[in-house]
Amino acid sequence: MTTHHMETLGHFKITVWEEENFQGKRCEFVMECSSIMERGFRKIRSLKVESGPWVGFEYPEYQGQQFILEKGDYPRWEAWSGNSAYRTEHLLSFRAIKCASHSDSKVTLYEGENFQGRKFELSDDYPSLQAMGWSTKEVGSIKVISGAWVAYQYPGYRGYQYILERDRQSGEYRKYSDYSTQAHTNQIQSIRRVQH
Amino acid sequence: MTTHHMETLGHFKITVWEEENFQGKRCEFVMECSSIMERGFRKIRSLKVESGPWVGFEYPEYQGQQFILEKGDYPRWEAWSGNSAYRTEHLLSFRAIKCASHSDSKVTLYEGENFQGRKFELSDDYPSLQAMGWSTKEVGSIKVISGAWVAYQYPGYRGYQYILERDRQSGEYRKYSDYSTQAHTNQIQSIRRVQH
């Protein structure tokens, strides 16, 4: 076991169950899981994050809708899914978010693609970007300077979730399809830091 | 018209529609509405907050589930409802939140009722109270020192929402039924400031 493995073991732990309310088949993870079906699960219906944060994905191989999973108990799918219109009860892969820092997070939003147009640098949570002065409902591109962020389709941290990390593609999300592969919309109306 | 009215007109504005995506019958409000049915609406299916924040309620007379409404567009009920388990599509009354201050908000959480037991003073947003060091999933009582807050049943700002204001009952929520009248649970796993 390498030093890297040891560190990972110390920092991240998630337990998943096949049934709601932490019932039925269970499994603990300290590393990422690219497909829960390969562990003999049909689906995940409840989970506990003992140390995080993690990001869950609708499909295997980290594809589809994203679900931010910070420390705490998630007894049913609606505890992690913010998008009840497109009602998926799938959470089939997940991985740790290693660069989260609640106290040192910076992100710049740009009106246009490729970091063009009006911009705004944030280091705090904003449940309403419009209230902060952002004039549209859309964000064209995003540069994460430090930490990890989660952006949402609707105000008040609702709707589709987009996890944005300094560690992924150098923190550069040049067009909306870089962050919103699953949603086919560039609407972002709230954004917040991810908590370690 | 009194001075108080003039101030209210300048600070708060919400527009509601009877159908999704801002269609059908519409009405603008700059003051609270204790029953949308009295305005001839059957229900509200979409809304825009032009200046806020507001709090919406499931039932007339500010009863039932609470929904925080900050500046932005809410094209469907899932944009404001964080609780898909108990699927209510009702939002039948609403009022402005006058004491919100994103930059000056303080709240103290207590383990026991009547401000007893272990306590924690917060002035920032916490998507996971457990990650911050709060050892249980419950909060016994809450004292709002300044501003307005919204507490949530689940981590990551999901599930039942509880609006907590300095201006209401002197900011003192002595037992869980003071803040959670509709939910019959004292589970709080995340909390954040309300944005003006």
Give a short synopsis of this structure.
Chain A has helices at 3-11, 129-132, 176-179; strands spanning 13-19, 23-29, 46-51, 54-59, 63-69, 72-74, 93-96, 106-110, 119-122, 141-146, 148-154, 158-165, 172-173, 190-193. With 196 residues, the first copy, chain A, is mainly beta.
Verbal overview:
The structure is a homodimer of 196-residue chains. Chain A is mostly beta strands and 196 residues long. Helices cover 9% and strands 39% of the residues of chain A. In chain A, strand 11 and strand 12 (158-165) form a beta hairpin. A four-stranded antiparallel beta sheet of chain A has the order 2-1-3-6. A four-stranded antiparallel beta sheet of chain A has the order 9-8-10-13. The first copy, chain A, folds into two domains: 3-96, Crystallins (Gamma-B Crystallin, domain 1); 106-193, Crystallins (Gamma-B Crystallin, domain 1, Sandwich). Chain A is built from three helices and 14 strands. Chains A, B: Homo/heterodimer, or complexes of higher-order. The structure of beta-crystallin oligomers seems to be stabilized through interactions between the N-terminal arms.
